[in-house]
Amino acid sequence: MQKQLTAIIEREGNGYVSLCPELDIASQGDTIEEARVNLREALELFFEAASPSEIKTRLHTEVYVTQVEVAVG
After folding, report:
1. Of 19, 25, 40, 60, which one has the fewest beta carbons inside 10 Å?
2. Chain-centroid distance, C-alpha 68
3. Can you give the residue ranges of every domain in the chain?
4. Is domain 1-73 in CATH 3.30.160.250, yes or no?
5. How many C-alpha atoms does 51 have within 13 Å on its Cβ side?
6. What residues pair up with 10 in beta bridges, in sequence order?
7. Whole-angstrom distance, CA of residue 13 vs CA of residue 1
8. Distance between CA atoms of 31 and 6, rounded to whole angstroms?
9. Please, are residues 40 and 30 in contact by the beta-carbon 8 Å criterion?
10. Could you report the per-residue pLDDT of 25-72, keeping only the tens digit for each?
11. Does the predicted model carry a pTM greater than 0.85?
């Protein structure tokens, strides 16, 4: 079974940090692609090791990513 999850990737220092907000699992990499691949691996390892009840407890089924405009200064 496949599940579509969100990956948010941002630059941090000399690399990139990736986050899956549905499960609050993060990873990192030297490039955007490496951070994405490493996050996918971390998620796969989580699903292999976690019990169904842990998955149900941690999984946020409604995650919305949007932008907001704010005044600065």
Report:
1. 60
2. 20
3. 1-73
4. yes
5. 3
6. 17
7. 36
8. 18
9. no
10. 999 999 999 999 999 999 999 999 999 999 999 999 999 999 999 999
11. yes
